[in-house]
Write a structure and sequence with these properties.
The structure holds 2 protein chains of 2 kinds. Chain A is mostly beta strands. Chain A has one domain (about 1-105): OB fold (Dihydrolipoamide Acetyltransferase, E2P). In chain A, about 10% of the residues lie in helices and about 35% in strands. Chain A has a 5-stranded antiparallel sheet, with no helix packed on it. Chain A is elongated and about 45 Å long. Chain A starts with a strand and ends with a helix. Chain B is mainly beta. Chain B has a single domain (about 1-80), classed as Beta Barrel (OB fold (Dihydrolipoamide Acetyltransferase, E2P)), CATH 2.40.50.220. In chain B, about 10% of the residues lie in helices and about 35% in strands. Chain B has one helix at about 60-70; strands at about 1-10, 15, 25-30, 40-45, 55-60, 75-80. A 5-stranded antiparallel sheet of chain B has the order 4-3-1-5-6, with no helix packed on it. The radius of gyration of chain B is 15 Å and the shape is elongated. Classes of the chains: A mainly beta, B mainly beta. The interface of A and B includes residues 55, 65 and 100 of A.
């Protein structure tokens, strides 16, 4: 799952029947630099995801991509490829990037 | 599958029902050239990976489906913890 900030929502009319009743949100993925800086910025290429948790604008979510995004609707088949799996309450990261030597140790 | 470094933890009260009680960690993908992925990843862990440890992450959701049921959106799972690199003393 990647992390993203909810930036808005999308409504459709018409839409394929499989999508009726689903909430669609606009997500802006968060880069490692912005996560460490805790600056509220995303920085990734935005995308649309299904949200069943009720994430509000500005909240950070983790979203599943790929065919697994449709699993919550199993055995119904729905044409979606991104799904909000959790709403982040708090997130802790080591504030420093990986030491260069450390990440290159196995070269 | 790819290697990643565990970089933090995620607290999330609101989550998909199949993933209650599940441990979520922030991981950073490690590339062969020594660089790391630009975006952090949230991975599911039940092996007990420690902060700063290197883990093997699978992108196949099958193992998550086996554990959490067919309706789980879980996908990135820690499937192994890489042994720490050990060097012998000597030429320092």
């Amino acid at each position: 799952m990647r992390l993203a900030i909810v930036r808005g929502s999308v409504t459709l009319s018409p839409a394929v029947p499989e999508l009726l009743g689903l909430t669609l949100v606009v997500l802006e993925p968060v880069t490692m630099d912005n996560l460490r800086a805790k600056n509220g910025l995303g920085g990734g290429k935005s995308l649309i995801a299904v949200d069943a948790l009720g994430a509000a604008k500005g909240q950070m979510v983790a979203f599943t991509e790929g065919s697994e995004a449709a699993n919550p609707f199993w055995p119904k088949r729905v044409p979606i490829d991104a799904y909000c799996t959790l709403i982040v309450d708090t997130i802790t990261t080591s504030s420093q990037p990986l030491a260069k030597e450390e990440s290159e140790v196995q070269q | 599958m790819f290697l990643a470094r565990i970089d933090g933890t995620v607290v999330a009260a609101s989550r998909h029902a199949t993933l209650q009680g599940c441990r979520f960690l922030v991981a950073q993908r490690l590339e062969a050239d020594g660089s790391t992925g630009a975006e952090p990843l949230v991975v599911i862990d039940w092996l007990g990976a420690a902060l700063n440890s290197t883990v093997l992450v699978s992108t196949d959701g099958d193992i998550a489906r086996q554990r959490f049921g067919n309706t789980t959106p879980g996908r990135l799972v820690v499937v192994g913890i890489v042994d720490p690199i050990q060097t012998t003393g000597g030429a320092a």
